[in-house]
Design a protein that fits this description.
Chain lengths: ~425, ~290
């Protein structure tokens, strides 16, 4: 393993040194001759390209090509899911896809690598006309729009309707009296929901890096104390490494928190009893507080190094259009965020769609994507683990909470 | 009196042996435990990544079937073939490199011999993946990061540095009496003939060892495959494929298949080892015939 360093220097240069000049000479730009020949590389998650899901991406790209006879487009498909696309593109923007999908929390990774194009003019107007301001905000940095949103990305609550009534699921503590609830307690994408619910803030409104994180103070300590009691509640189970969905399967758990990616599995388990809704409130010191999830969006981005910018931008906008989002929903179950589609009866009647959008609009905050957000994950996770293993108790809650706040505000690890 | 002493010594040995065996048995169980669990999970019928029981409630072969038939999302057969091809090619190449370099350094005397050994030692101190991004850009400059050429790129990456890990084989070659070489030279052998006809047959254990390690490292490598394959899913190796199965979108449906895949990837290594094990006899036994 170790010696790969020189591996390629030796083998590559020796064996291929001579051929190098010839090979690089005829790289990607062979289609550059006519004005019509366009080569577009498109990356998406495997799901969107699988035959089981009707090859959504290929279908949409072919439709796009038909709509634009002025270009003779050759599509090259690659696989990169939204979460890891940023890393792949930032690694080498020049050899990356022209059009790709990314999760909005990776926005700064790509803008730092100069790997994300801005949308302007009529395209921006078109995008703005069909999306809510919250969704747009997730892709705007310093006033510039960086992607075409195609779905929101957050988590919400699934529950067993035979155990909880619609009234019960409005409050977590009521639920705990009636049945088993599982929550990803040691996952820092989920756990801050309680803190944010009690007035803790991240970077001011989420964009002001200098404002820092406010997870300290009495309100945060109260939440830590609440969490310690929650963990000890016998109806409460920590969801870790898939134990939540397993508990749902064997009936030991009646409600869990996850996102749309588990919708099909849960539907299979609960059948008609599957209930899905936005986040409940929790009762702290006699008052009800709303849990608030981190929310973001997934969007289609364009590589500024693309040789065919116009076609690439047009394709990105097309892939995020109402028509494509509808197909995406029907073929792959991706929940649309286009406002026209959400008004459509056939889509809004799906409870998962409603739950996700309710969560996005009402019980979430925009997940900050400033660089310092990277410091906020481990301390929260450690707090969750500390409560789980009993090292954080009511006695040291104050001190531990302050410690977490300090760690979130520091650059050290 | 003497008989009694003998008796007590025997008894002592028996007690000692029993204790040792009990400890060994416990250790063996602990070691084998995770493997047994993976094998059991690969036959588990219940879905999901987490179960509350150690033994599966019911057994099935579906996980293996799914691995090879459900290829639209994660094409396991393709990944398996990719990896097999890469591993076999780089195994042959790097075995040859290692043995040839070791032979040269053990038997020949040339000016750069010492500097080369020092350099190899120092380079060996650095972890290979430190240079992975540089390696990627060099490969890109040569034009090896697209399409099927990725396989070639990976073969080069896995085998190219092999010549730096000559130490063990060289040490073994050093133990073969140089008189054997001299006798062969007098009889008119060339260096190449000495290498292939005398040194290699006498060094079977080390050839086996080199082959096995040369096969295993590309077979199991994740980091270079990930950096070089990037979005080309048709070039993925099994390590990337197995990793993909654990992503949050797939884990619930694919976890048991992941275990099945983990069992399957151990088969080629096990087969190679079993096949080569019979050569693990003392290679030098024939050398000192006189």
């Amino acid at each position: 393993m170790k010696k790969r360093a020189v591996a390629v220097l030796l083998a590559g240069v020796m064996t291929f040194g001579l051929a190098a000049a010839g090979l690089t000479g005829c790289g990607n730009d062979s289609a550059e001759g006519g004005t019509e020949n366009v080569r577009l590389m498109v990356w998406s998650p495997q799901n969107d390209q699988s035959k089981d899901n009707g090859e959504w991406l290929q279908t949409m790209c072919n439709n796009f090509a038909e709509e634009h006879p002025e270009w003779n487009i050759t599509f090259v498909y690659g696989v990169a899911d939204e979460a890891s696309a940023a890393g792949q593109v930032a690694q080498d923007p020049e050899a990356s896809a022209d059009v790709f999908m990314f999760a909005n929390d990776t926005l700064t990774t790509m803008t730092d690598a100069n790997a994300l194009a801005k949308f302007g003019g009529k395209y921006r107007e078109e995008i703005e006309a069909t999306n809510t301001q919250e969704v747009l905000d997730s892709l705007i940095m310093d006033g510039d729009l960086y992607g075409v949103p195609f779905t929101t990305n957050t988590w919400f609550m699934y529950y067993d309707k035979s155990v909880f009534s619609e009234e019960d699921v409005k409050n977590l503590d009521t639920m705990l009296e009636k049945g088993g609830v599982s929550f990803p307690f040691v996952n820092s994408w989920y756990l801050p929901a309680f803190y944010i619910g009690n007035g803790c803030t991240l970077f001011g409104d989420g964009t002001d890096e200098s404002a820092g994180v406010d997870f300290g103070g009495q309100n945060a300590v109260d939440v830590t104390n609440y969490l310690i009691d929650l963990e000890q509640n016998e109806n409460f189970k920590i969801d870790d490494l898939g134990s939540g969905i397993a508990g749902l399967r064997d009936g030991s758990i009646n409600a869990m928190f996850t996102g749309s990616w588990d919708a099909n599995s849960i539907k299979e388990i609960l059948g008609d009893n599957m209930g899905v809704t936005s986040l409940p409130t929790f009762t702290l010191n006699g008052e009800e507080h709303q849990m608030k999830a981190y929310a973001g969006s997934k969007a289609i981005g364009v590589n500024p190094n693309s040789k065919n910018m116009e076609a690439a931008i047009a394709l990105a906008v097309y892939l995020g259009s109402a028509e494509s989002q509808r197909a995406h929903y029907e073929m792959c179950g991706t929940i649309p965020c286009n406002t026209e589609l959400l008004a459509d009866e056939s889509i809004s009647s799906d409870p998962v769609v409603t739950a996700q959008n309710d969560t996005f609009n009402n019980t979430s905050i925009l997940q900050p994507f400033v660089s310092k957000m990277n410091n906020c994950w481990t301390p929260v996770e450690n707090l969750g683990k500390g409560i789980r293993n009993g090292s954080i108790t009511h006695d040291n809650a104050q001190e531990q909470t302050e410690g977490m706040n300090e760690a979130m505000n520091s650059d050290g690890i | 009196m003497a008989g009694q002493k003998m008796h007590s010594a025997k008894r002592k040995r028996f007690i000692n042996n029993s204790i040792v065996h009990v400890i060994l048995a416990i250790l063996a169980v602990i070691w084998v435990f995770p493997i047994v669990w993976v094998v059991l999970t690969s036959f588990r019928a219940e879905k999901g990544s987490y179960v509350s029981t150690f033994l599966p409630q019911s057994y099935t072969l579906d996980n293996y079937v799914k691995l090879f038939t459900d290829t639209t999302i994660l094409n396991f057969p393709q990944m398996f073939l990719n990896t097999l091809l890469i591993a076999i090619c780089s195994c042959i190449l790097s075995t040859f490199y290692v043995l040839a370099v070791s032979y040269c350094l053990s038997r020949l005397r040339f000016k750069l011999r010492k500097p080369y050994m020092n350099m190899a030692m120092i380079l060996g101190l650095f972890p290979g993946f430190m240079s992975m991004i540089a390696v990627y850009f060099i490969l890109k400059a040569i034009g090896l990061t697209e399409g099927n050429l990725i396989k070639l790129a990976l073969i080069l990456v896995y085998s190219g540095g092999a010549a730096l890990s000559f130490q063990i084989a060289k040490g073994f070659f050093d133990t073969i009496p140089i008189a054997v070489d001299e006798a062969a030279l007098l009889d008119g052998c060339t260096r190449w003939q000495i290498f292939t006809k005398i040194t290699l047959p006498l060094s079977k254990p080390i050839v086996i060892y080199t082959t096995l390690t040369a096969f295993m490292s590309p077979w199991l490598d994740f980091i270079f495959a990930k950096v070089i394959c990037r979005a080309n899913s048709d070039q993925y190796t099994i390590a990337i494929g197995l990793w993909k199965m654990l992503e949050k979108e797939y884990i619930d449906n694919w976890y048991t298949c992941f275990a099945a895949g983990a069992v399957l990837i151990s088969i080629p290594i096990a087969a190679l080892f079993l096949y080569m094990q019979r050569y693990y006899v003392d290679g030098l036994s024939g050398a000192v015939k006189g």
